[in-house]
């Protein structure tokens, strides 16, 4: 029997998941796979078309759930053992929590195949307690984009695209200040995900502060280390010193760069495609910085896909995951409609030249950066059954620090909040 749990606040979304638009409720054919995720349907249409072409008679029906509603919606439906979801997208650091709650089917018989097929940092994030629960589809990296015009006006030589000549954060901010003073830049430096753990984790990691989570069970906060305090003091200074803007949210920052208002911008591969369309912007790309005397660390991680244990289409679901993650052809098709990095090694090697040439000379070198980072500097977000609560607390802490809160005191407060939230998980 098909089950759908409808809460008043999520009625529209849940109805979409159970209705004809999502291939759910009324469609009980075993050859129809119900797939749920936050992306625009156009993103996944190429891989769906490819899979259906290779599996005549099979049909994949995709339902989009907005990102800010995805996790809550999935937890409600999976907890109700809703079998109208077969495959769904999984934010990688949430794998442990989902597996612990019984929301992911065990894929451990694929361990060796997945290890061999995917990039180095893309396997462990899908494991929990020695079992494999999901397969990686995409990975990511961060780059330092720069405005050539603003730097030239300030007499600043731009950073090299060579990973061996990676700039430090100290160099970046010094150059950004000159661009503000003499180049006419409104902002010295802007991180795209301005209050998100995904991007800010690397600051503390570079200074030896760790991920912020420790302990054998990864349920002990470690946010008051010297590395975290130093990193957040530096982060605080960006906004306190008017080097970066307040009042603009994550993923709302890229227009400030495309409008020529920022000297430097830290963003991902998706921005290469976006900036390529900004014809009046003269820009370049360099490796993501690190702190002087610290470790070179770059953010990574993205979406994996998992199977709902309550699904009645386990075999077809596994075929779909196998095609999208382990088959280079299928994995490449997941990137055809958007600028994102495939996690499959063979697909990655074919994809690199495409991204490198996307914006001509402006994007030249991004492939070499991406390849180097994937092998040497990529650090994934921590695996913890408490990651969901951790991320929520940290997003609020980053916002407060950005808006003037004392870094050390706010990290102490975050530690207390996380400890309280995790008490029920022990």
From TrEMBL:
Transit peptide is among the record's keywords: no
Domain of life: Bacteria
Pfam families membership: SBP_bac_1
The keyword Transcription regulation is assigned to this record: no
Keywords on record: Signal
Signal sequence interval, chain numbering: 1-18
Record-given protein name: ABC transporter substrate-binding protein
Organism whose genome encodes this protein: Nonomuraea purpurea
